[in-house]
Write a structure and sequence with these properties.
- Strand 3 and strand 4 form a beta hairpin.
- The N terminus is likely disordered.
- With 139 residues, the chain is α/β, with parallel strands linked by helices.
- Helix content is 29%, strand content 32%.
- Strands 2-3-4-6-5 form a five-stranded mixed beta barrel.
- It has three helices and six strands.
Length: 139
Amino acid sequence: MKKWIAAASAAIVLSACSAEEEMVQSTFSEGTESIIEEPSEEELAEQMKEEAVPAKFTELTADEPPVGKKVAATGRVTEVIEPGLTGSFFLQASDGTYVIMNATQTEIEINESVTVYGTVAVEKAKDGTPAINAVIIEK
């Protein structure tokens, strides 16, 4: 008897859910676009460039660097540690050397002059060099 009551209760709940689902689907047709528009990649890149401030070596080498802060650094690539996406390289800027974690599809070569835009990484390199997670790299 208990099994029959449980089964009947489950059927009622499921039919109520499908009735609600039908009402929502009839109210909002399948062709309805999302009310919230997501920014395009170009818009996000432009926003990053506008919000990034010049990286300051002394600030990023502090015991507690401003993790997540949007920064930009310009300099010369002195060493490619790992090439390609998720690779990394050293960037010699006017105020010091940074380790750049490449989250872009931009290929980097030694001696190239680049500007990187990204956020201050959670961890520094093993030798204490400050790290930046680059989301935009301009040559």
